[in-house]
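Why do we care about 3D structure at all? Because function follows from shape, and shape follows, mostly, from sequence. That is the central idea of this module. The next example makes it concrete: a single protein chain, its amino acid sequence, and then its structure expressed as tokens.
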Amino acid sequence: MDAVAALKSAINILDLPVSAASATAEPKEAADTYAIKQTTGAVSEPEARLVYVISNGKLALTWRIETDVLSNWLLTYVDVEDGSQVHAVVDYSADASYEV
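And the structure:
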């Protein structure tokens, strides 16, 4: 599975408001990192990077898909071999308010 397919999988599984119908991946200067171009709905271009995560006690190669969709900045870890499997999601909230 390539970076664009991993992004499309993350969009479908997480029901993200991003469109990647004509998306392409372009290598960045950092090793194994790609900018995903021609998407809509994200604040900035999504990025994909090959990383390992531990899932169910086993090491899994994944695409770490970084997407910023206004109120959420997500790191989604999509399995390289089985794109239908998301091993983990980190959700950084872009907006928060606290009453003291």
